[in-house]
Design goal:
- Helices cover 87% and strands 0% of the residues.
- By secondary structure, the chain is mainly α.
Length: 140
């Protein structure tokens, strides 16, 4: 039950968002709340179904084997290094993507706030990367 509780809470939050979407009279916001509610409800329901499916006594041994393999993979040093390397490469790709996107938007004369938002995303990602690096460096 401990594994299912967060998803049940999320399903209730999704139902609440759908209800708020029906109550609000402004079309833009009602659609936004309704869509968020459907998204949260569907994602949580799928995850809850997945847990119930795998915890069925017929599949329990296979489920335990999957959990054991996932645990081994999570503590395996090589896989930890690969995850860190993948995160680092993704960080670099996103930094360059945001810079190139802001340049392209500037060349196509997009609105200033759009270019500023993309550039601020670049600055935020760069600062977050530096801060996370410093924090991790002090811990290790």
């Amino acid at each position: 039950m401990r594994e299912k509780k967060p998803f049940i809470i999320e399903i209730l939050v999704g139902i609440a968002l759908i209800c708020v979407g029906f109550i609000i009279r402004v079309d833009y916001y009602s659609t936004m709340f309704f869509s968020m509610g459907v998204g949260v409800l569907a994602a949580s329901a799928v995850q809850l179904f997945r847990i119930i499916y795998w915890q069925n006594p017929k599949r329990y041994t296979e489920y335990e084997a999957k959990k054991r393999e996932a645990h081994i993979n999570s503590v395996d040093e090589r896989k930890q290094f690969l995850r860190m390397k993948a995160g680092h490469v993704t960080y670099q790709i996103m930094i360059f993507t945001l810079l190139i996107l802001s340049l392209i938007l500037a060349l196509f004369r997009a609105e200033t706030w759009v270019i500023a938002m993309v550039f601020l995303l670049f600055v935020f990602q760069w600062l977050a990367g530096v801060i996370v690096f410093r924090v991790l460096e002090k811990r290790m």
